[in-house]
Design goal:
mainly alpha, Four Helix Bundle (Hemerythrin (Met), subunit A)
Length: 154
C-alpha cells in the first residue's frame, strides 16, 4: 500500500487519475452554483437532476481517487492501469455532463418513454456511464486477485 513517502513514486496513470478526480471534484463544487439557482427558480433547470449531477460528480471524483490509490495493489501492468484509469474517467465525467445537461432538458433519461429527448438521454447514459462503469468496477475487483507486477517472481 502506498505510503505518504511513496506518493511521488506513483505511476503516471495513478497521478493522472488522481488529477482527473480533482478536476471532477472542482466541477462538482461549481455545479453547486447552478444548483442553487435552480432551487430558487432563477435557473430553468430540474433541481433533482442538478442535485444528481452535483452528488454524482463528488462520488465519481472519490471513485477516481480510490482507484488511483489502489493501482499499485492491482495485478495490472502499465497498459492495464491505463485502461482501468480510462474506464473510470470516462463514465465519471460523462455522468456529470449528461446529468447536468438533462437538468435543462427536464427529462429523467432512466427508461424508454417514447419521448425522443428522454430516450436519447437514456441511450447515452447507458452507453457512456452505466455499462462502462459496471465493466470497470468488475475489472477493478478482478485486479485485486493477483500479485502486482512489482511483486511477481521472475
Amino acid at each position: 500500500m502506498p505510503t505518504l513517502a511513496g506518493v511521488n513514486d506513483a505511476s503516471p496513470h495513478a497521478r493522472t487519475l488522481a488529477r482527473n478526480g480533482a478536476v471532477l471534484m472542482l466541477l462538482a463544487l461549481l455545479t453547486g452554483i447552478p444548483l442553487a439557482a435552480a432551487m430558487t427558480g432563477k435557473l430553468p433547470a430540474d433541481v433533482h437532476a442538478m442535485v444528481a449531477a452535483h452528488i454524482g460528480a463528488i462520488l465519481g471524483a472519490l471513485w477516481m481517487v480510490a482507484v488511483a490509490v489502489t493501482l499499485p495493489m492491482l495485478r495490472y501492468g502499465p497498459a492495464g492501469q491505463a485502461r482501468l484509469a480510462l474506464g473510470v474517467t470516462v463514465p465519471c465525467f460523462a455522468n456529470w455532463f449528461v446529468t447536468f445537461v438533462k437538468g435543462f432538458l427536464k427529462v429523467s433519461g432512466v427508461d424508454f418513454t417514447g419521448n425522443a429527448t428522454n430516450d436519447a438521454v437514456f441511450v447515452v447514459l447507458n452507453l457512456l456511464v452505466v455499462f462502462p462503469a459496471l465493466a470497470t468496477a468488475v475489472a477493478w475487483i478482478y485486479g485485486f486477485g493477483g500479485a502486482p507486477p512489482t511483486q511477481r517472481p521472475n
